[in-house]
Amino acid sequence: MGDERGPRTSWTFLTQHARVLLMISRNPTVRLRDLASACGVTERAIQAIVTDLEGAGYLTRARNGRRNHYRVTRHAYFRHPAEAGFEIADFLELFSRLPQGSGVEEHRDDLPSGDHHERDNA
Q: Where in this protein does the record put region Disordered (predicted)?
């Protein structure tokens, strides 16, 4: 019996909430439509995530004409007890060094996925 197991699920280290917060921190006027496209979820899901983040105090939203302008509360603390003593500022800073584009990161096929099953089978 061979060990031909594939990955159980398609998961990433960052949650959609973290990804949306990072993208907003990089582009405070990003459209929900662009966030949805980059995250691979619906605009309604992005609206719910933004509402969650706003309700938890991680960002504020102000209307500027027809566009929203977001401000990330960089000195807010992580929610989970294991990280509760740490501000999100360092997390945001870590990802701020990525190449700056339109604020919506593109998926790059030339980078390794980190999936050891793919790497081991190559």
A: 102-122
